[in-house]
TrEMBL record:
Name this polypeptide is given: OTU domain-containing protein
All copies of domain OTU, residue ranges: 616-751
InterPro entries: MULE_transposase_dom (IPR018289), OTU_dom (IPR003323), Zinc_finger_SWIM (IPR052579)
PANTHER family: SWIM-TYPE DOMAIN-CONTAINING PROTEIN
The organism's place on the tree of life at top rank: Eukaryota
Transmembrane segments: none
Amino acid sequence: MDYTNVFTTDAIHPSREALIEWVRETGKRNGMVIIIQRADIGATNRSRPRITFVCERSGAYRHTGMDKGEEGKKKRKRKATGTKKCGCPFSLRGIKLPLADEWTLVVKCGTHNHPGGQHVEGHSFAGRLSMEEIGILIDLSKSQMKPKEILNTLKERDGLNCTTIKGIYNARHKHKLNENAGGSLMQQLMNKLMEFKYIEWHRNDEHNNCVRDLMFAHPSSLELLRAFPRVLIMDCTYRTNKYQLPLLEVVGVTSTEKTFSVAFAYLGSEREEAHTWALERLRSMIDDAMLPRVVMTDREPSLMNALQKVFPMASNLLCRWHISTNILANCKIFFESKSRLDAFISMWNIVVLAETEDEYANRLNQLESHFHRYIQAINYCKEQWLLPYKEKFVAVWTNKVMHFGNTTVNRAESTRAKLKRQLGLSRGDIESSWPKIHSLLELQHIDIKTSFEISLTNVQHNFKDPLYGEVRGSVSKSALCILVDEANRSESIGVDASACGCVYSRTHGLPCAHEISSYKIRGQPIPLACVDPHWRKLDLVSVSGKKVQDVSFTTAMELFYKRFMDADDIGKQQLVMKLMELVNSTSTSLVAPKENVKTKEGCTSSFPEGLQPYIMHVKDVAADGNCGFRVIASAMGMGEEGWPQVRRDMLFELRTYWAEYAQLFRDPIRVDELIHVLEHFQSPADYDRWMTMPDMGHIIASRYNVVLVYISMQLCLTFLPLRSAPTPLPMRRVLSIGFINDNHFVEILMTTGAPMPPVANSWSKSCYPCAEGWATPYAAYINMFHGLVSNDVATQDTMHLDSDG
């Protein structure tokens, strides 16, 4: 294959780089990869700089000899490798001309001893990225563009680009290694937080310096918090990292109804103490004039208790949407058709939106009257929600606080959904998650600043009415839209305050319909003063109005110096180390949290030997006599501190189906004993209030419509729902609870396809006909269990009773 004519040229190349680019591009067009074999810089006066180009298949494979190994030792297995070298004679020479930096090319041998390739993709050298392309790759990666999209962008930019997707991944990995410069994960994270001026707090284990809790906030997010502190929304995101740490997100709302993330906290547990620590850090960043007045959450007892401690003056509202979905999920088993269930939910929502106490009482009576045949559903709504929490979500009470229209945590859900799309699978570490969080925050801040400018400069045609002359351009577009709606409503309301209801004046701080009607009658524009300052704020200036005082560290350094001088040599080293961590993030000795995948050493030995290989993880809970209920709360996504709710749910189940459980246990007295066990909501719990197995297994499975696997050295059983029709297999929830040390329950995560204990024999005798299909898919797993577990382990629910401690 002779390519002499292809590379023969009289052209003078203006630089060394131009010559190299021409040779390589010409090679690509002809299906070959040309590399530099040797480059001579012309060190002597007689020689000129030159470059020797050859085919990538030139030369021969240099065999280094087989690994013979040592006598008596197993030889190392050789990898399945090969070579592309075939001694190709093709050769070109580039020579620098005497004047300037011009180069010419000479063909020494234009012949190849092999066929030309149809494509150059797959040739490692041809797939290398240029420095310009590497810069583009880095910029696109920072924008969270996926590798396949980066590859498409590079190929659209250069039709001769031969890079493969593997090359993109390799280039990204190489850049990350260079950027991190060999630092630990926590050093890398702290360095980035410091680089972008984040505020960061953390707590670590004193024994191994492992991070226990980590919280950080973007400086612009804290500016937004100080400008819009009145309403906060808090929600936890799960399965975002390989450590299985819950991610608490604090969210605020601007006057333009844009959502901003205030802070993120990776918490070592979902206990009240961890939530209190995070909220106290947040409290330290705002003064008394900027405390939140409303905090929206889900029903998370530990978070709600922490809020009461740290922000006692704030009204804690509960998300209406999640309450409605909770009732839908837990009451559907009481209805014979979807239409009746939908009608019940619709009437329930009408009760929730009642605006007076009389209206609330009437609507609740109508609900009870209309659905009197569904007493279990009525009791659930009253006992689980209305009696303990109605002031936190029913409109008659929530309309007394200024929540600016935030009655759900959907804003936090929206930002959480965006974040989870960015974070992808839950196997990432905190350091790799941070750039994605940072990117979302930057986009949030740009969007908010844009919304401010739109409210200040853009005027919609329906805002040009003289009625809005004083507020137009001085309040947010969102507030103007509400005023327009209220002005339209004033046409039918007039100045009758009782007909108006005045909801917007109480909940939004805006003139309501009857007030706007009076302004119209007087021919007066809506006064700017009657609009709450929240809606008038279109900047990032703190609402406190206080000028930031100069911060001095003189006193702090004097105290540090005194403590340093009083310490011994070891104490001085520790103080210097802590000081260095503050000023130089790369010196931190913090260790990333332990990956929460493997079972703690020794835990698997508490379970039957045949099942131990199938146990991926054992999660411990507090041992306060409520540990069994804590395990169920954690497994159901309530957080460990949701154990009182589990007791209430099980109590509701037992009371509602008292007769069925009396028949199942063959003893009505036993049902009353279990009710006594469950009627306890304090920590710690005495012995007579502990969870007991196997009888409570039936209650848990039926109450939450889940498959419950119970494992201990004495008893192994599977519990199935007693009354509901089987759900599709992919949608089923399987919870595993373990009993260890004869006094403590733990949560277990089993591998996919793990063996399952036999179904409790009393289930088949007591389940409804519609529930009989629950056990069908598990026959093979139960047979596997029998082949692995000794017959010494009981598999009948009439033989043993376990209780927690």
